[in-house]
Design a protein that fits this description.
The complex is a heterodimer of chains A (244) and B (254). Chain A is an alpha/beta fold. Chain A has helices at 22-30, 64-71, 104-114, 119-133, 148-161, 178-193, 205-211, 229-242, and strands at residues 3-13, 38-48, 53-58, 79-85, 88-91, 166-170, 197-201, 214-219, 222-228. Chain A has 8 helices and 9 strands. In chain A, β6, α6 (178-193) and β7 form a beta-alpha-beta unit. The chains are: A alpha/beta (244), B mainly alpha (254).
Chain lengths: 244, 254
């Protein structure tokens, strides 16, 4: 049973001066400036179960990335609870675990390890990962010679090798070419049929339509609208096209 | 959550650091040897020719016993301190136990440390000293130093996320420590009343133990070793605790 549950999750970033320097820290202690929290997420309650695929739409800064980051446990909610049952993998930023000076193959092994595969699993799955990526002979070239799309191919392939129960994807699919995007979508739909959970934030409504069963629309950290994917996505598109 | 293979994650990160460091260098491992040799030469020149006040035999070996543990401490702590900030992408966007980032950085420096230890042992033997039964203690002594630095780096790397000044504090502390560790002077010359300053300084303890074993062929005093062990383990435990408290908000400050 795979579950991803958020209970009235809120997260704010205080607007007081950053505490990067001791001096501002000390002066903030002595004379606290008026605090005016900025809510990145406000009272988000969600429950996803087997086979749910949630599309997340919203303008820049609406809280999409923060939501995924909180779901992944990378960022802590200030209030509320995040419950995860199942193995979670996240593809939040392209090549964040990758290093430009390492070859594709070295990066695959490194990231597979970081994502939690054992030494033996990495050995077993290495061929499969490289094959799915379609990188071919360039796999032994340093990553800095790769295009953005090639990096995505590699990053996505490694994430899939973890066989996650819950997969979080933030935007990244957009940089893949048509063929690879279709391959990714096909692979994600396989996960969906196997009863896994997917959460995908994107500005690419076509991809979201293909993947999601449900959707939420975030506005200033709140859920402005939620429901079956088609309804929410069309409404969001309507606002985008109509202006406001 | 995934079952975590901490050892494999650590070794993968250490391997990464090692590869990155040496891939674009033509002289590679040679650099690990060059720095302590140059320092040894300079300090030996100064304290046997400019201030020839020493009656220490084989001063170059004596001084290298100080340089090698100190070098590891200074380099590993600085790179450990910067590790979270320097791996912000990894820390913010990849689900992994964040403790492994500073620890792996310190361990990657441990590779240079091993090379330098090999150099130290080679020069010790070349100077006419013999292998003795106390050499079996060396791995424990150096190992405790690594544990100690891991603990400190956990603390400083986490603090550096919130206060970017920490890196400069660490650098200044290293400079002070260069003088406060008996690198080019012996423990015997230190007046009795200042001994406590040195006894709880693990780096000084490592240097003293190292000289006991390599140069004097005697077992280091048990009190010295036990203090070193206690301070190192406490440092590591404190490091884990502090890091666990501070790591929650890393994403918001990086």
């Amino acid at each position: 049973m795979t579950i991803l549950r958020l209970q009235s999750v809120s997260k704010s970033y205080s607007r007081k001066p950053s505490r990067q320097f001791l001096r501002s820290f000390v002066s903030a202690r002595l004379k606290p400036p008026p605090q005016e929290p900025f809510y990145a997420l406000r009272d988000i309650t969600l429950e996803l179960g087997d086979g749910d695929c949630l599309g997340v739409v919203g303008a820049n800064g609406a809280g999409k990335s923060t939501l995924l980051s909180v779901m992944a446990g990378l960022s802590w909610p200030e209030k509320g609870k995040v419950e995860v049952h199942g193995r979670l993998a996240a593809l939040l930023e392209l090549g964040s675990g990758f290093h430009p000076d390492l070859t594709g193959a070295e990066n695959v092994r490194l990231n597979a390890a970081l994502l939690g595969l054992s030494r033996r699993q990495v050995k077993e799955k290495f061929g499969e990962i490289v094959e799915f990526s379609g990188i071919g002979e360039f796999i032994d070239e340093p990553l800095r010679t790769y295009s953005v799309g090639m990096t995505l191919r590699l990053a996505f392939s490694v994430s899939m090798a973890v066989e996650p129960d819950i997969l979080l994807i933030d935007e990244v699919l957009a940089v893949g070419d048509r063929a690879f995007q279709a391959k990714c979508v096909e692979r994600i739909l396989q996960l969906k049929r196997a009863g896994r959970i997917l959460v995908c934030a994107s500005h690419d409504m076509d991809v979201l339509r293909k993947l999601s069963t449900r959707a939420i629309w975030l506005e200033h950290g709140r859920i402005a609208r939620q429901g079956p994917a088609e309804g929410v996505i069309s409404a969001y598109e309507g606002v985008l096209n109509g202006g406001r | 959550m995934l079952r975590r293979h901490y050892g494999f994650i650590l070794s993968s990160l250490v391997l990464r650091d090692f590869r990155i460091r040496y891939r674009n260098m033509s002289l590679g491992v040679f650099w690990s040897l060059l720095n302590p040799l140059v320092m040894m030469g300079v300090l030996t020149f100064i304290f046997t020719r400019i201030f020839p006040n020493t009656n220490i035999p084989n001063f170059h070996v004596f001084v290298l016993c100080g340089i090698v543990p100190y070098n590891f401490f200074a380099l590993a702590l600085v790179s450990g301190t910067l590790s979270i900030f320097g791996n912000a992408g990894l820390v913010k966007k990849v689900i992994l136990p964040r403790e492994v980032v500073p620890i792996s950085t310190v361990l990657a420096n441990g590779i240079h440390f091993s090379i330098q230890i090999a150099l130290l042992l080679g020069i010790t033997l070349a100077a006419g000293y013999r292998v003795n039964e106390h050499w079996v203690l060396l791995p424990a002594v150096f190992g405790l130093e690594v544990v100690f630095v891991c603990g400190l780096a956990l603390i400083t790397s986490a603090l550096d996320v919130y206060f970017r000044d920490i890196r400069y504090v660490v650098e200044s502390a290293n400079t002070v420590l260069f003088w406060m560790v008996p690198i080019f002077y012996s423990f015997d010359t230190i007046p009795q009343r200042f001994h406590p300053l040195y006894q709880y300084n693990p780096i000084a303890a490592v240097v003293l133990a190292c000289r006991n074993i390599l140069l004097e062929s005697i077992e280091p005093p048990p009190a010295l070793l036990s203090k070193l062990a206690v301070v190192s383990v406490i440092s590591f435990g404190a490091g884990l605790l502090v890091f666990a408290r501070l790591k929650r908000n890393f994403s918001d400050y990086l």
